[in-house]
From TrEMBL:
It comes from Tribolium castaneum. One of its GO terms (molecular function) is phosphatidylinositol bisphosphate binding. SUPFAM superfamilies: CRAL/TRIO domain, CRAL/TRIO N-terminal domain. The lineage of its organism: Eukaryota, Metazoa, Ecdysozoa, Arthropoda, Hexapoda. PROSITE patterns: CRAL_TRIO. It comes from the Eukaryota. This is Alpha-tocopherol transfer protein-like. InterPro entries: CRAL-TRIO_dom, CRAL-TRIO_dom_sf, CRAL/TRIO_N_dom, CRAL/TRIO_N_dom_sf. Residues 101-263 form the CRAL-TRIO domain.
Length: 289
């Protein structure tokens, strides 16, 4: 193993370290002197405005939304409403859905949660769109799995604070696959990635983007706001370009990095056995058995 890259094949569900809290105070305005007050303000806003029936309003849940929006209460409230509207519009993304859906996704190697962080301590998630077989995994299953992984990631305090990096790999992506990515699907993907989940997407790196990818990117463009566009980077097959953003010590050999190829089986087994995870996702309407 390369030095200084810690491999952790499980969710980190403990309290954040003091160093991480210090970083949060400086970069996302998380002040221990005002945090509880802002959580209470957000909760009061939710109940007084009555724009949704909240699935949860406990402190830990509301904190995810505040961290996602750097403790701007109004912005966190808007995200909270977006989250609930998305849930109501896509009940099939959680009703009757459980962790076992990820078994199917991993079988086709569509999504990988890498067992190490990047040089800034952020999670790295890889989506391999070229491996998607629509006849075996529907687009709704793909999106439901993406949302579930987002919910799991939101359980980690570190992820809430420093955010995540996503690599979209379009190697071998075809026009036939692109035809499934309609404007409606594009909107749902961006809702999961940016506007309707309590997660911080810090950067989106697109690799092996071919002319087939250009077809779907033109569909996505109308839904991309300026801040999102600033976080999207296109690298094609130039891995040195990717390395300018993610140190190769924190990337697998597929992307000319130093790390071996890890599958997510051990990570997933740990998720399945974790009682805290089971309780958390059951509160959000997922099945646990």
């Amino acid at each position: 193993m390369p030095a200084h890259v810690e491999v952790v094949r499980e969710l980190e569900l403990g309290e954040p370290s003091q160093d991480l809290l210090d970083w949060a105070k400086e970069h996302i305005n998380e002040d221990p002197d005002t945090k509880c007050q802002l959580i209470d303000e957000l909760r009061e806003m939710i109940y007084s405005r009555g724009e949704c029936t909240p699935v949860r309003t406990d402190d830990a849940f509301l904190l995810r939304f505040l961290r996602s929006r750097k403790f701007g209460v109004e912005s966190a409230y808007k995200l909270f409403i977006n989250y609930h509207e998305f849930r109501e519009e896509n009940l099939n993304f959680h009703e009757g859905v459980g962790i076992d859906l990820l078994d199917k996704i991993l079988e086709y190697d569509l999504i990988r949660v890498l067992p190490y962080k990047d040089q800034k301590g952020r999670n790295i998630i890889v989506y391999k769109w070229g491996k998607w077989v629509p006849s075996a995994i529907t687009i709704d299953e793909f999106l439901a799995a993406s949302k579930l992984i987002g919910e799991l990631g939101a359980l980690e305090a570190r992820n809430q604070i420093v955010g995540a990096v996503v690599i979209l790999d379009f190697n071998n992506f075809t026009v036939q696959q692109a035809l499934y990515l309609t404007p409606s699907v594009a909107r749902k993907i961006l809702q999961i990635a940016a506007t309707s989940m309590p997660i911080r997407l810090e950067a989106l790196h697109v690799v092996h983007n071919s002319w087939a990818f250009e077809i779907i990117f033109n569909i996505f463009k109308p839904f991309l706001h300026e801040k999102m566009i600033e976080r999207v980077f296109f690298h094609g097959s130039d891995m040195e370009s990717l390395h300018k953003h993610v140190d190769p010590k924190h990337l697998p050999v597929t992307y000319r990095g130093s790390q071996p190829e890890y599958d997510c089986k051990e990570w997933l087994e740990g998720v399945k056995k974790n009682e805290t995870v089971a309780k958390e996702i059951s509160l959000l309407g997922y099945k646990t058995s």
